[in-house]
Structures are given as structure tokens and as C-alpha cells.
Amino acid sequence: MKGKVYLVGAGPGDPDLLTIKALRLLQTADVVLHDDLVAPRILALIAPTARIQNVGKRCGEKMMRQEEINFLLVALAESGRQVVRLKSGDPMIFGRAGEEMEALRRANISYEIVPGITSALGASAATGIPLTHRQISSTLVLTTGHRADKNADAEWSRFAADNSTLVVYMPGHDYGGMAGRLKNSGIPIETACVIVSRATTPDQQVHYTNIANLADAPKLAVPTLLIVGEVVKFARDAEQPERTLLGFGSLDPGQEERLA
């Protein structure tokens, strides 16, 4: 009998933000293939009998090409395994789930999507920034800093005209270039923005600034995202020091030993 593949969202990092279904699958899976950015405290919840394999990226270098991941998902399911493909955040938002679903469909493999809290929502909750506001912004745009196509700047200009809240996943560390793109899109340079690093984890850091000073922002640890818009002014600690460390607990010694 063929197995089944579950494309599971690990959420932004805090294990308490996992869905009950995601936790159950982690504790019953035969195999877990996870992204590199999935938090260690979430990996510690995987059943000790499961095979665990990192198929993500480290320092920008791919451990496994997407085509190889697709092949592995199919092969494991065809051998009768229950497979969890564990993705940071939500699998359907910048998680390449579409490519994996396509490969599974072609192979006639049963699969299921288990949503997770995407990092934009985790960062919003952790900083107290409302991503929409009735009087300021009724449009939320999720995009990625890795986009390099010709139409990207034109799209950002449209967002500026709509007073949208812009959340940039994977903005990279070229904050000067990012500030230039935002200014060229017509977004006023005094517009507030914030860089959130490792949202909802014990290592979370937050840097508040505006587009005019974005180029001088510190290079915080990945994963990071950039929130741009006047809603940033509503953050619970926007007037506090530029970096804020939030603690969400630590690993038990036994869990640390398992992941060593």
C-alpha cells in the first residue's frame, strides 16, 4: 500500500503556535523532511522512531535540489511511509508547496495540506503591530525580497498608491537596495518600517526604523522579514530601544541531546 504525504506548516518558531494536527503528525510520522529554518524546539517534538532529514538551505546553499525533494517524497510514499514535509511558517506561502503537490499528483500519491501560522502573522502578534487598520491600511501585501523580475517595481508602486501594509519575506541584508526600491516605488521616506528576526523564538530581535534610515539597520540573524507601513507606529514597543529580545522558553536537556 502507498503511504501519504503531509505538507505541514511549522509556524514561525514558537512550538505553542503549532496546530494540534501538526503536533499529532510529528508524533506519528515515519519520516520527517524539514526545512533548515524550522526551529529546534519544534524538531524536538518529532517521534524518536521517525527518520529526520534536513532538506533545506544553509547559508544560501541548497542541501538538496527541489527536484530531489520531490523525488524523495514520492519514493518514500510509494514504499508505504507516512511522510511529513515540514515547512517553516505556512506551506502555501513562499513554501514551494505548489511544486511538491504537482509532483505528488503526477505520481498519484495521496497528500494533505496542514496549514501553519505564517511568519508575518507571528511577527505581527509578537510585536503588537496590526497588519491592517481601519483608518490607515485596509490592504495587506505579502511579497519576497528575492523577486527580481521587471514587473516587481511597478507592482510596488501600485501598493504605495493604495497605502498598503507591505510585508517582505526574505528581504536579505542589502537594506540600502531595499530602501531604494521602496523610495522608487513612491513610498514616502518617512514611512515607518521594522525588521523582525526569528519571530516568536527566544532569539527574536526587532529593529524599528523608517525608509530614510533603513540602509543603516543592523544585519539581524535570519530568518527575517520587513514590515513597511504606518501600522508599524502601533507596535507595543516602537518607542523603546531599537532591539527587543523576547523569551519564549528553552529546550530541556534531553531534547538538546536528541538534536545534537
Structural summary, described in words:
- There is one protein chain.
- The relative contact order is 0.15.
- The two termini are 34 Å apart.
- This protein has two domains: 114 residues, Tetrapyrrole methylase, N-terminal domain (Cobalt-precorrin-4 Transmethylase, domain 1, 3-Layer(aba) Sandwich); 115 residues, Tetrapyrrole methylase, C-terminal domain (Methyltransferase, Cobalt-precorrin-4 Transmethylase, Domain 2).
- β2, α2 and β3 form a beta-alpha-beta unit.
- α3 packs across α4.
- With 260 residues, the protein is an alpha/beta fold.
- The longest helix is centred in the first third of the chain and has 13 residues.
- The strands form three sheets. The protein has a five-stranded parallel sheet, sandwiched between helices. The chain has a five-stranded mixed sheet with strand order 8-9-12-10-11, covered by helices on one side. The chain has a two-stranded antiparallel sheet with strand order 4-5.
